[in-house]
Request: fold
Amino acid sequence: MSTSSLPGKRSKDSSLSKELWNNRYLYLFVLPGVVWFLVFCYQPMYGILIAFKDYDIIEGVMGSEWVGLANFREFFNSPNFSVILTNSIAISLLKLVFGFPAPIILAILLNEVRSIVFKRIAQTISYLPFFVSWVVVAGIWYELFSTDGGVVNQLLASLGLIEEPIFWFGDPDLIWGMIVASDVWKGIGFGTIIYLASIMSVNTDLYESAVIDGAHRLRQIWHITLPAIRPTIILLFILNMAGILDAGFEQVYVMQNPMLLDKAEIIDTYVMKMGIFRAQYELATAVGVFKSVIGMIALFTLNFLIKKTGEEGIF
Amino acid sequence: MIISRGEKIFQGVNYVFLTALSFLFVYPFWRIAALSFSEGYEASKGGIHFWPRAFTWDNYKAIFARSDILDAYAITIGRTLIGATLSILLVSLMAYGLSKNRLRGRQLINLMLIVTLFFNGGLIPTYLLFKSLGLLNSFWVYVVPSLYGASTVFIFRSFFRALPKELEESAHIDGASDLTVYLKIVVPLSLPIFATMGLFSAVGHWNDYMTATLYVTKQDLIPVQSLLMKILDLNRSGKPGSSFGMVDLVSDTRRTVTAQSIKMATLVVVVFPIMCVYPFLQKYFVKGVIIGSLKG
Reply:
């Protein structure tokens, strides 16, 4: 390091090259990252152009012929379109309805616990499933819900609620429920962390004076805790809406099987199969672009509407 | 303080509810472990809920006798160590550079990173890029595409910005270069953030299933998650053991092992390392999530 003629001294000389030389390590630190982002993030953005082309792998992105919106038209007119769109929106909305309030409720209940030890243990346990992969979650749930000795079917049978075991992961009518339930199970603990953190930041004086005023627990939750976490709720809600067509790529792919495709084929899994397994690149890219555009529209619309009501948006 | 009766009931119900909920999070894992230590043939008779029946290590012996498990384990351990180490090193260097106002073009680079939080090229353009870079069916597809991430850079950067400036400044006056300052002063002061982000990155690598699904078809390159998925799918397709040599496997381990008991043991083997780092994860976890959500 001492081989340089200017060992790190802050030179008063303002010439650019000298300044650059003095800071040469900083530039070296940043350079590989800049190259990486250009290659792995920006090159694929440029690759989106093939959605509007008749992609020829030899000609490349630039050399291929423009076809306008033909790929999009082909997707909209295909019989798969309505099934896939319905599944994606339905699963994502069901996840929103059940999965979004769940961590808020859990955070409030945890916050009400007096014993700090109990609270910590319960919280620690709740995010255990978050750290395992979807493949593992699927494996665990298949076992719990299996028709052959699964705990759930056994329990229901011994309570006399069912006569035949239910094929939970094989029945198209049940798969949305299983996807949503396992999503809540895996994610609820993770979700509570942010809410608990914003509840903790509430000034404890507020609760004390509420107690003096004779407000009971539910009133305290309603008038102090909920308003305190409202900005967090709104922020996460807007971000969730941007993913209105994200039904959960990895999860759904892991849990689907050929019998369930009418209910469990979603945009992402369709793009993957069509694009990668069947090499219909331009069509699959068009479907992906369609999804991103809808997500963007949802994000901006909701952000606009929420700002209209006087709340703070995300931008 | 006087506690009303309603309040007492609320507290009681709350404790019962949270205890029941905790049970729902833990029990499924417990049950898998109990089944994995039971003789497969016994387990298939049902009724194993909390403790193994006919305790045995056979299921584990059976899976570790297979070369595909060992190969997949080697791939996963290799990518986790190499991927997490390289990623943390490179991201922290970049973040350190960006934390200095002396760096020209800093704002432009920041903007370049922020854009990637909102836009991406999507699956197919990314796939075609990997194809042209020769990353398909290469070990490096597990490492290189996940080296950087804008939010990780920002988390490191805000940590570095909050470090006391005096040490760095006096080192510079003594003639130390930025590299020396980074290695001798910044890294030792930032060990908590290195540990946190390193663990997250490692868990991400360990759990990653989609990369192999999308970009790897060579069977000797698949990670444990993909192998687990293959094993889980065995019976569901209705052809037990056909493509997977399960038949040989059952015959050479005294027939106590079943496809189901193999699944249970494989699940445990895949989850076990996560459970080992879990105490550390959860120690840093809350902090990491909160920093991430504030900056992101």
Observations:
- Residues 259-295 of chain B form the longest helix (37 residues).
- Chain B has 14 helices and no strands.
